[in-house]
Design a protein that fits this description.
Strand 6 and strand 7 form a beta hairpin. With 168 residues, the chain is an alpha+beta fold. It has three helices and nine strands, in the order ααβββαββββββ. The protein has a domain of 113 residues. The longest helix is centred in the first third of the chain and has 21 residues. Strands 2-1-4 form a three-stranded mixed beta sheet, with no helix packed on it. It has a three-stranded antiparallel beta sheet with strand order 3-8-9, with no helix packed on it.
Length: 168
């Protein structure tokens, strides 16, 4: 009989644990605010090689500006986007760390999608930067540049050991 009582007690605790895990609607990490925060784009700053402090995305990947863009308009289309994917605006207000909110905005692309911009210029990632801390896109073609926290492009040429693979 004692054994049956122990089994019933264990089952009761197990059910109570499952019930507690099943409804998280009252926790602060759920609901509309959490889903908005998780879909908002993140920008921060990080030291990247000999380029100094630059803007990076939420995964630590370096972001770039394109000299052929104009303030408020992207000119990277088609094949360009395969090598230089946009930093999408996402939903909600971007989460920023180390960058003034007054510098960050959006541009509307020709397909109607929204892309983040810094100081009016659309920002991109470089497909060959596969991990945080890389800046292989710096100075590619003499038209792609990392961005400083002040919103200005950094035109410093990469050192020969930075590994951009393009000899720039």
């Amino acid at each position: 009989m004692k054994r049956l009582g122990s089994v019933v007690a264990a089952l009761g605790l197990g059910l109570a644990g499952l019930t507690a895990c099943g409804d998280e609607s009252d926790t602060p990490a759920s609901g509309p605010a959490a889903s908005e925060a998780s879909s908002a784009t993140k920008l921060a700053t990080a030291e990247v090689g000999d380029l100094g402090k630059v803007v990076v995305d939420g995964n630590g990947r370096t972001v770039y500006v394109f000299d052929k863009d104009t303030s408020g308009k992207s000119n990277c289309e088609g094949d360009c986007l395969a090598k230089w994917p946009v930093v999408p605006a996402g939903e909600g207000t971007p989460q920023l760390e180390g960058i003034a909110a007054s510098l960050v905005g959006t541009v509307t692309r020709s397909d109607g999608s929204k892309q983040l911009s810094i100081d009016g210029l659309p920002i991109y990632l470089f497909a060959s930067d596969t991990k945080s801390g890389e800046a292989k896109g710096q100075a590619v073609g003499g038209v792609w540049w990392v961005v400083g926290p002040d919103g200005k492009k950094i035109t410093k040429q990469p050192s020969s050991d930075s590994g951009n693979g393009y000899g720039y």
